[in-house]
Amino acid sequence: MLPDIKSITRAELEARLKEWGEPAYRAGQVLDWLYKRRVASWDAMTNLPKPLRAKLAENFSLRVLELVLKQGARDTTQKFLWRLPDGALIESVLIPANPALYGESSDRHTLCVSTQVGCAYGCKFCASGLDGWKRNLGPEEIVEQVMAVERWNAVERSKVESRESSAGGESPRPSALDSRLINNLVIMGMGEPLANYDNLLKALRLLNAPWGGGIGARKITISTSGLAPQIRKLAAEPEQFRLALSLHGAIDEVRARIMPVNRKHPLAELTAALEVYQRRKDQLITFEYILIAGVNDGLDQTKPLAALATRLNAKVNLIPYNTVEGLSWARPAESVCEAFLSALENLGVTVTLRREKGGDIDAACGQLRLKTERELAGPAA
Ligand code: SAH
Ligand code: SF4
C-alpha cells in the first residue's frame, strides 16, 4: 500500500519533490491544498501541472474518510461515524465551545478524535473496549478526522450562504473553504492513544504544524487510561501537549475493579510518571473521574482523590456516567454527584462537574460505532 500524503511531514514532501526536480514552492502548494483547502482528490489541485499530479498519485494515496452517519443538531454536540478504506468504523465528536473544560474562553469548537479501531484495555464501563482491539489508526486517519469535519463544515456553510444569496449549488464556496471550525482537540475518542504512540505523535505534529492543521499544542489534550511508561516518554517530547488522565478510582482497589490497566500500572507507578510530566511541562494535568453509582461515588473516595489532585496540582473533571447498552453500570443521582463535588471543593480541589446531558446522542465515544456494527451484523440471535 502506498504511504498516504497526509502521513508525511513538510520536510519529507520537500525532499521528494526535490528528487523529482520540482521547484521548491510546489511543497507549499500541495500542503495548502491538503490542509487549507482540504481537497479530496489530486485533480482538485488545479495549480499543479498534470504530470506532477499523476506522479503524486503514483507515489502517495490521498485517502479521505467516508461519512456514514451524523447525529446531533448544529450548536449541540454532533457525532460523526466514519468508514475507513478497509471498512472499519470510527467516531469523532464535535463539541461546541465549553471554556470551562479544556482550553480557554476563545474556543469555538472542540473535536474529539479516535486513535484506534476498538480498544485493548477493556475498562469495564466503556463501549470502545467491548469488542476488543482491531487495529491502530495510521497518522493520516487521525489527521483526516479533523480535515473531514472541516470539509463537512465548509459544505454546510456554503449551503447556508447560498441559501442566503439564493444562488444555489452544492460545492463549497471559496469563503467557506477558508473558514476553520476546530481550534481545540481532545484525543478522547475510541482507543488508547498512548498505545498507538508513534502514529499519534506523527498525527499531532501534522495537526500542530503551522503549514498543517495549525492547532496549538496547548489546545491539544491527550487522554490516557494510564500507560505510565508512555507518559514518561511523552514528558520528554518538546511539544506542550496537555494531558488528561482517566483516573476513575483514587485508590487501587476501586480503580483496578473497573480498569484492568491498573494492575499493570498501579497508582504509585502512575503518579510517579505524572509527576515527571507535570515537572517537565509546567502545566496543569486534568483528572477525568466518571461517577459510577455504587462504585466510585462514595464520599470516602473524596479524600484520597483530593490528596492525588493536590500532589499533582491536577484539576478534576467529574463526569456522570453515560449508560452503555448491555452494561449494568449506572449514573449516580444528581444529589450524589453534587455532594461529591462539594466535598472536593471543601478539600480545596479545583473541580468541575459536567451537568449537560451528553448521553442523548450516545456521546460517550465508542457507543455509536458499537451500535451501528451490531445493527449491520443483523439482529441478535
Ligand atoms: N483510552 C483513553 C481515551 C479514550 S476514552 C482513556 O481511557 O482515557 C475517553 C474518556 O471517556 C475516558 O476518560 C473514559 O474513561 C471515558 N468514558 C468511557 N466510557 C464512558 C462512559 N460510558 N461514560 C462516561 N465516560 C466514559
Ligand atoms: Fe480503552 Fe479508554 Fe475505553 Fe478504557 S476508557 S476501554 S482505555 S477507550
What kind of sheet is the major sheet?
10 strands, mixed
Helix and strand sequence: HHHEEEEEEHHEHEHEHHHEHEHEH
**Which stretches are poorly predicted, pLDDT < 50 over at least 5 residues?**
103-107, 358-362
General shape = globular
Computed over alpha carbons, the radius of gyration is 22 Å
Proportion of residues in extended strands: 15-25%
Number of helices: 13
Strand order of the largest sheet: 1-2-3-4-7-8-9-10-11-12
Number of strands: 12
Label the CATH architecture of the largest domain: Alpha-Beta Barrel
Level-1 CATH class name of the largest domain: Alpha Beta
Hetero groups: S-adenosyl-L-homocysteine, iron/sulfur cluster
Helix content: 25-40%
CATH superfamily of the largest domain: Aldolase class I
Q: Which structural class best describes the helix and strand composition?
A: alpha/beta
Spatial gap, N to C terminus: 38 Å
Walkthrough of the structure:
By secondary structure, this protein is of the alpha/beta class. The chain folds into 2 domains: 55 residues, DNA polymerase, domain 1 (Orthogonal Bundle); 312 residues, Aldolase class I (TIM Barrel, Alpha-Beta Barrel). The strands form 2 sheets. The chain has a 10-stranded mixed beta sheet with strand order 1-2-3-4-7-8-9-10-11-12, sandwiched between helices. Helix 1 crosses helix 2. The chain is globular, with a radius of gyration of 22 Å.
